[in-house]
Amino acid sequence: MAKIIDPWGTTLIEDYSKLIKDFHLETFNPKIFPNPNRLMRRGVVFSGIGLKEISDAIKNKKSFYVLSGIVPSGNKIHFGNKMVVEMISYFQKQGAETYILVADLEAEAARGISLEEGRKRALKFHIPAYIALGLDPKKTIFYFQSDNIDVMHAAYKYSKKITEAQFKALYGSATPSKIFSALTQVGDILYPQFKKRMPGIIPVGVDQCPHILLTRDIVNRIRKEKFFLPSATFHKYTPSLNGHFKMSKSMPESLIELPEDPKIACRKIKKAVTGGRDTLEEHRKYGAIIEKDMVFELMKQHLIEDDNELNHIYKEYKSGRMTSGELKEIACKKITVFMINLEKKIKKARQNVNKLKFIKRG
Amino acid sequence: MAKIIDPWGTTLIEDYSKLIKDFHLETFNPKIFPNPNRLMRRGVVFSGIGLKEISDAIKNKKSFYVLSGIVPSGNKIHFGNKMVVEMISYFQKQGAETYILVADLEAEAARGISLEEGRKRALKFHIPAYIALGLDPKKTIFYFQSDNIDVMHAAYKYSKKITEAQFKALYGSATPSKIFSALTQVGDILYPQFKKRMPGIIPVGVDQCPHILLTRDIVNRIRKEKFFLPSATFHKYTPSLNGHFKMSKSMPESLIELPEDPKIACRKIKKAVTGGRDTLEEHRKYGAIIEKDMVFELMKQHLIEDDNELNHIYKEYKSGRMTSGELKEIACKKITVFMINLEKKIKKARQNVNKLKFIKRG
Description:
The structure is a homodimer of 362-residue chains. Chain A is of the alpha/beta class. Chain A contains 15 helices and 8 strands. An 8-stranded mixed beta sheet of chain A has the order 1-2-7-6-3-4-5-8, with helices on both faces. The A-B interface holds A 105, 108-110, 115, 146-147, 149, 152-153, 155-157, 159-160, 162-164, 167, 173-177, 179-181, 183-184, 361-362 and B 105, 108-110, 115, 146-147, 149, 152-153, 155-157, 159-160, 162-164, 167, 173-177, 179-181, 183-184, 361-362.
């Protein structure tokens, strides 16, 4: 059971390189992609599967797609969603056909959010937030899971292609709701290929890895249908501010949601676990322990675009010339600008949701 | 595991009264229904669940529904389907709103029959055969499972309402394909109540009992939605001509399909296991062992409508005045007339399929 990653659950992934080994994943090499983005350059995207197919498609200007789903629960998203959008945006710029689905069936079954309510929330918040974070809506095809009868047919059909034991090997257990959710996601992942077979890439947090592996398993079992095996990039979690492994709603101080009032975000940053030393004297002498610093990690992953700027801060902080208090000041300024801009962009995107291209029911 | 009935499988049910006890079913009492049909009068429908609700709805002229599904595989149906149609027809005459669904998703996943092919077969054969057997098409609403997005939504939603252990307790195992099939059937069974809550009855062979129990379980877990618990009648298997418990395609001599060339049907009847004695002398002296006689059972269940006629044959055969050869002659004549009529009626019904009322996709 040690090899199970649970997409719905609580499993902690302590060691990313062990994960790569256990699941036979590929180590991510940013050099095979043109103009890698911040997440790719900085090792936040640390792994993937089928990456060469996508790199080749980009190089040879062949059709490929990028796809992701939004679960329309709550009225906030998180930094994990931001990473997904940044990866979508990257591949979108490289020419990928882009699909965003709203997993309203999942939200209804798992969270009790009615389909109507899920639709409302997605249009009011989640889709505008994705656009605010960099998704190009003009180049994106959207659909609601509950409208996509082809995906539902596919899920039912693929259910025959996997045994209970195979499902358990991937997911740890085989509850009816996991089976519906996972197989519907397989349908979603392959959906862009229903009309035209082509490579596709699914950028996900590593906890979603089982869905990618399940889809690849099923594609291998229906070879005569000639689907391309879906590729994926896997990114790390955004570290929790209180030093826990992953931000979690159960620990509000660990978590900055999107959007969040900049004052609250700054307050949380000020309380965050850093790599600063116990006294100023020691700090100046030994410098910060950057690997333990949640604020630096947050800036690296999300708040500082320019590599030179980040390198400069790294050196100053590592050497002890910059204190953790000064680092937090910088982070607070950055996140304030980011949150103000995000709110503005969400509002603007919301005004244009009626222009989006949705696949119709049926 | 002794308590499992497998709707997809091979379980034999040796003792119907034990089944009633194990599953807390009701013994069927034909007296609570007006003008019970042949199957109800003769104990072929031997059990049910929630029967009083339906009997009350009939008496009080309240809305209720009857529903069944057709799996459009093969180009034959069997006596089990005939019993279902006769029960539907009975409740239809008592005022039930009638729903027939074509389980094309099931046929695709389980039998590899494409949705297009399933649709074609259902329109060309299965639906006309149901009409030929007594279904009133003018009073029936039809749908293809693959068109019914509401049923698919419901299946997904209900998947959260049942655990793996509960599913296994009903079905013996919890494979992904069983889970999709069973939960989609739950959606089908409740579908007529989506717009209007009302009692409903599902006439099934006893092997389908787990679907009824699962649906009732789920209705109990979503009480605030106020669905009526679906009711059911359970009928026995039509005995296999070679003395096995159930007709089976794996033993062609055991099985008369519908329709079948009357000559072949008669040949099978002539080879059938009877309750006749080893010699004519013994037969005249001791009479037939009717409980072991597959031909008499076939006539009782399907070929003789008039109770007086059946009683007369029973007495003659039981007393030894009628031989098993003579009994087979009667059965052969009856089945010949039946098959010729059936073929005619199917042809006629096929010409009118374009007039049927189908629920549209979406």
